[in-house]
TrEMBL record:
It holds the Pfam family ABC_tran_2. This is Putative ATP-binding cassette. Keywords: ATP-binding, Membrane, Nucleotide-binding, Transmembrane, Transmembrane helix. The chain crosses the membrane at residues 17-40, 90-110, 122-145, 166-187, 199-220, 241-260, 280-304. InterPro entries: ABC_tran_2 (IPR031599).
Length: 309
């Protein structure tokens, strides 16, 4: 609709699409105003009178039940509450959603005709997929331990081991990165018109990239923390941050090398099921090793450095 309206305006014509778009924009603006007024009123009333839960009118929610389930559940509940209360952090998720939308939409408009061009575009997607996830991880995974700030030293006085703290950071990073990776890994091949064979490869590589990004981010973030950072954007500006980006790009490059084999066979030999071929199990084994070894080493290194503090 927007394209048709702009095309008409470029030709000096105000068509039906322009008026429909103007009506839609006005309606959305009114709707946003109504929602903002309602949210402001509810927030003002609750700030004056106290929350509903404090007056006993509402039962405990999911995060409250997690808090009562044990140390791990309490840490997850606390982290999620703090994350979504911080406007800067919560805005990162919105930006990630916009990034996925722009990425998949741009793929839709690639001038692809023959199958070979689709396969080449699919290979380029497999290459960029790891870079995108790694770039998001530098803001969502690497700063997780540093965001504890001075409260990190308070946690040391409680019944929370360093191993538990590290693994809960890793799980929290996966909570953010896995949906991103799987969404990219599934939607992009569908937009490009790739077959089920390369869609499976894309999903596996996306899963591997999310795991590696979370492990490298949390492990190196624990090894090189910055507890005095004023905001999350300052945390990666350190030796550990540059090391994280270098290793993440290296891992993404290794995934590209792994992806080249099934894409080559699909292009040259028209192979439609690489994972069930004789090479498939060996390829999966190499993928698992390439992913889990860096994750284990990074988390282990971070744990050892945490023990020094």
């Amino acid at each position: 609709m927007a394209q048709q309206a702009l095309k008409g305006l470029g030709q000096g014509q105000v068509g039906e699409a322009f008026w429909l778009l103007l009506l839609l924009a006005g309606g959305l603006l009114v709707l946003v105003g109504l929602l903002a007024g309602y949210a402001y009123q509810q927030g003002w009333v609750r700030a004056l009178e106290g929350s509903v839960r404090e007056r006993g009118m509402q039962g405990p929610g999911l995060l409250d039940r997690w808090t009562m389930s044990g140390v791990v559940g309490a840490l997850w509940a606390r982290d999620l509450r703090l994350f979504f209360r911080d406007a800067n952090q919560a805005a990162q998720l919105v930006l990630v959603g916009v990034l996925v939308l722009l990425y998949t939409t741009s793929l839709q408009y690639l001038p692809l005709g023959e199958v070979r061009f689709q396969l080449v575009a699919g290979f380029m997607h497999l290459a960029f997929q790891g870079f995108v996830i790694g770039g998001v991880g530098v803001r969502l995974a690497y700063p997780l331990l540093s965001l504890e700030g001075p409260s990190y030293w308070m946690l040391q006085t409680g019944p929370v081991s360093k191993q538990t703290l590290l693994l809960t950071r890793f799980a929290l990073a996966l909570f953010f990165l896995l949906p991103l990776g799987l969404t990219l890994g599934y939607l992009s091949p569908k937009v490009l018109g790739l077959d089920a064979n390369l869609t499976q490869i894309s999903l596996l590589l996306a899963l591997a990239s999310a795991l590696a990004t979370a492990g490298l981010g949390v492990g190196l973030g624990a090894a090189y923390p910055k507890f005095d950072a004023a905001n999350p954007a300052e945390v990666p500006l350190s030796t550990g941050g540059f090391l994280y980006m270098a290793l993440t790009l290296l891992h993404a490059g290794m995934l590209v090398l792994l992806a080249s084999r099934p894409v080559y066979l699909a292009l040259v030999e028209r192979q439609s099921s690489y994972l069930t071929s004789p090479e498939g199990p060996l390829w999966l084994l190499v993928l698992v090793l390439v992913t889990l070894v860096p994750v284990g080493l990074a988390l282990g290194f971070g744990y050892l450095r945490m023990g020094e503090r």
